[in-house]
Specification:
With about 270 residues, the protein is of the alpha/beta class. It has helices spanning about 10-20, 35-45, 55-70, 100-125, 155-175, 195-200, 205-220, 245-265; strands at about 5, 25-30, 50, 75-80, 125-130, 180-185, 230, 235.
């Protein structure tokens, strides 16, 4: 069975995905921020626990180092952990590194974690990276990367998720021929999760739909060689802002991402 690392596995989609994979005997590495809730998931899935606050890029590197110290290979990385939003909220929070919080957790953290774990993924090839994105998408403002002007939590969330889709396409191209595939997915719209409840918006689609869409990218044989794609649930499609896949946009985002990460972690 595959060894699968799921970030944000203590609740919501991450927990439900862990339970679904455990039922088929996959070896699970469970990341979460709350050790009590994470222990409950480990008790029902048999997963191995890794605790880290992904709002700190140093903590992201420590998480990767801990996984690497315990395991020599990784078959699947599911970058699921994220910070949602409250509808209409304009309170701008920052991360441990002083970055806008959703930029840090929803985008920079999965980019860095994937980079640090690539040696394990390459060793396990064929291997997969699954980035949990969103249908909520907004182009990045390169003149205001920390979103200090006209801030709303919803806009920041949408920017971070589209950035992750752009990065997915970029990384997939860089990893061509290695046997490591990288895809992004919008699992389902406003699933019945704690994140949706906190948004103040009503749930629209069942959690089970999101689990099925994400699980498909984890281990469905039909997707063995598919890479660099964005899926709206189970349908492969383009993001709502196709410009996010243009070479110039991707290159600018990549350069900014490297600078933001390296400013903290080097």
């Amino acid at each position: 069975m595959a060894t699968v690392l799921i970030t944000g596995a203590s609740d919501g989609l991450g927990r439900a995905l862990a339970e679904d994979l455990a039922a088929d005997g996959h070896r699970l590495l469970l990341h979460g921020r709350n050790p009590v809730r994470l222990a409950r998931v480990a008790a029902t899935t048999g997963g191995e626990v890794f605790t880290a606050d992904l709002s700190s890029l140093a903590a992201v590197k420590r998480l990767a180092a801990e996984v690497t110290a315990r395991h020599s290979r990784l078959d699947v990385l599911v970058n699921n952990a994220g910070v949602g939003f409250e509808a209409g909220a304009t309170v701008r929070d920052t991360s441990a590194d002083g970055y806008e919080l959703r930029l840090a957790v929803n985008y920079l953290a999965p980019v860095l974690l994937t980079r640090e774990l690539l040696p394990l993924l390459r060793r396990a090839a064929p291997a997969r990276v699954v980035n949990v994105a969103s249908v909520g998408q907004q182009l990045f403002d390169f003149d205001d990367p920390q979103h200090e002007r006209d801030f709303t939590q919803a806009d920041a969330y949408c920017r971070s998720k589209l950035a992750l889709i752009s990065h997915t396409a970029d990384l997939a191209a860089r990893l061509a021929g290695t046997g490591v595939t990288v895809n992004a997915v919008h699992p389902a719209t406003f699933m019945a999760t704690t994140m949706t409840k906190a948004s103040g918006l009503p749930a629209q689609e069942p959690l089970e739909k999101g689990v099925a869409a994400t699980r498909r990218l984890v281990d469905h044989p039909a997707l063995d060689t598919v890479t660099g794609a964005y899926f709206h649930s189970e349908e492969q499609t383009l993001p709502s802002e196709p410009q996010a896949l243009d070479a110039e946009y991707v290159a600018r985002l990549s350069a900014l991402t490297s600078r933001l990460i390296d400013d903290v972690t080097v």
